[in-house]
Amino acid sequence: MRNLRDQEALIPQPRGNLPKVCAAALAAITTGSIVVLSPERMFGWVAMAALILTLGPLLHGLCLLAEEMLHHYNTRYRGRAFLSHMLPACGFGCKTLLPAGLAGLVLYLVGHPLPDNNQFCKLLILVSVLYPPLKSLGILGPSEVEVSDICEGRKMNVAHGLAWSFYLGYLRLVLPYLENSISVFRATHQHSSSCWGRGSRKLLILIPLNANISHKLEDEDDNIRFYDNLPNNEIDRAGVRGRVYKHSVYRVLDENGKGHECVVEYATPMLTLYSMSQESSAGFGEPERRQQVLLFYRTLQDILEHSLDCRNRYKLILLDDEHHDDPHFLSKTILRHIEQQEKEEFCVTPPPGQEMVHPLSNSSSALPSAPPLDGNWHHHPEPMSREPTLMFSLEKPQPLRGPVENSDY
Fold it and tell me: InterPro entries under this entry (predicted)?
């Protein structure tokens, strides 16, 4: 369980609403201070600040609109409606127009707080005009945290696309047939280990943090040995008749040299992430690769948890890349997860050798007898605790009895 807690500590959680709460608290404190210092001009100050802040983005939207109309109207928008597509894309939406209109209306009703009208006009024009160049140069652009939040919220990361492709193009097709393939494999391999628990009957998917994987597991750990392949699954896919999907069975040796057979493989999208980090044109460095691996793990886990086709047929194993000094780290990690899966399963069948009573038996020995009066329990070998059983009555149902008056009144 310690390993699983460490694994959960590596996965980034979705960002919350703390920035919005802090921004609202800061605005409330500042507005309250203005109310205390000059309450008669509070509405004017707030309206002027809101108008300046919203007029700048509107002017920047005009600059974006010029580019979109001249060069991208047909290619990016395919001639769609100007008002419903292009204007909102350039920032002329309700979130910008409505606050600007309300601020202008309030400022017109209460008047601006500055004593000189020329000063107010100069300030409004200067701040609004300086906003577009500062925004275009990236000085007022979104930070890396904001870009990451937008990409994660709108599912625009590389990891999201790879996770959905891995699920829709592979896992959803093969996992429903995994248990049947293992049963056929065990029937045809008499020398196979007899201990195929629930943990071994799942597809173990390895996801290394460094995304650097080898094509043969035995090259990374000599305690892992290739045994055989499961029966092939042939599925008609994308015009290919009988496309073959296969899994490999490995025998993992523990500290005592005992072999544990399981179906294990790497997540193939890790090859894409690693190759992208090696290409300079992809703009994908090592820190970005690690972040995308973690997002891939989190996204794939969320997808599989809500998939009825894949439920209880897989196990994601996140491999930390800080254990290069241990040559058997991979085998120990696989065995640890298999053992954990076995411990999480509950036994719903009676233990071997325990006597069970048939639910439809009507003999007297099937019913639990009362303890004897002489206190002698030797003739009643029934255990004190037993598996719950269903008891059915063979008597015909009787009609409900009417109310009986038994009071003295």
Answer: STING (IPR029158), STING_C_chordates (IPR047191), STING_C_sf (IPR038623), STING_LBD (IPR055432), STING_TM (IPR055434)
